[in-house]
Design goal:
This protein has about 280 residues and is of the alpha/beta class. The chain contains eleven helices and eight strands.
């Protein structure tokens, strides 16, 4: 396993400088860091790659699609814009040094149209399949994140994520599962994770309030056994969002401070992860 933490834990805006965060992550003893590609460009990606390497860290990336780049859209021009967005993201991830890119890559976050769920799913799979040559070229795995019902209507469960990944026909496309979302959407968390075997490419952890794992009521023993059942042995990233009153916090509906201090939350998360697994 590789233990990481999402840089968003410390960020007030998605364009905040990342180098001071990398220093904290390295000092705490994490194997690596996850960085969002929101607001990324190639110059920043190359500089970030050098900064990550200089600190002896590994890195993985996350991303999301804007409404004007919806790969599930019925509008072919919007789908094309989505494919272009993801192709750039693959190149940014490579420049940073990541071999994994995951997140809300199947449709925009917060987009809902249940009447056309089947059509949107089919169009998303078809568009993502066109990304496969880029993923192969750069050696990057793409993770489709299963989100709770308040953030999408397209991929809420692990099974829906696996089905979409399989529909793309690419061995490079799998799923990202997250205990925050699993805790809301799955009746059997162990089974949901276990049944993702072979397609599980990334894993996020936080507790039910998006705070320190182990501090709430997520059934951690079930999650651990599900990972073992699935034979998963890659990134475990603490993705905690804890601060209100910032643009980033507002984007994620953080309306109160979940934890008092970001660095202490990261320290506690790493200690929990080492004991949990």
């Amino acid at each position: 396993m590789k233990f990481g933490v999402h840089a968003g834990l410390w960020m007030e805006q998605w364009t905040d400088p990342l180098e001071p965060i990398l220093d904290i992550v390295a000092d705490l003893g994490f194997d690596g860091v996850e960085v969002s590609l929101l607001g990324m460009d190639m110059d920043r990606a190359k500089g970030l790659g050098a900064a990550v390497k200089a600190r002896g860290l590994e890195v993985t990336c996350s991303d999301g699609l804007p409404m004007a780049a919806d790969v599930s859209s019925a509008d072919p021009d919007i789908r094309a814009a989505g494919l272009d967005h993801l192709r750039r993201s693959v190149r940014f991830a490579d420049a940073i040094g990541a071999r994994g890119l995951a997140g809300v890559v199947f449709a925009p976050w917060g987009a809902f149209d249940i009447a056309d769920k089947q059509g949107r799913t089919e169009r998303s799979a078809d568009t993502l399949s066109m990304l496969a040559p880029d993923l192969d070229e750069f050696g990057i795995d793409l993770g489709i994140e299963a989100l709770n019902r308040f953030e999408t209507d397209l991929v809420n469960t692990a099974a829906e994520g696996v089905a979409l990944a399989e529909a793309t026909g690419s061995d490079r496309i799998g799923v990202l599962l997250d205990t925050f979302h699993l805790n809301m959407e799955e009746k059997d968390i162990r089974g949901a994770i276990a049944n993702s075997a072979g397609k599980l490419v990334h894993f996020h952890v936080s507790d039910n309030d998006r705070g320190v794992p182990g501090s709430g009521h997520v059934p951690w023993a079930e999650a651990r056994e599900g990972l073992r059942d699935a034979g998963y042995d890659s990134w475990i990233v603490a993705e905690m969002f804890i601060k209100t009153g910032t643009p980033a916090g507002g984007d994620l509906y953080i309306w109160r401070d979940i934890e008092p201090d970001a660095t202490e939350a990261a320290r506690q998360a790493l200690a929990f992860l080492k004991g949990w697994l």
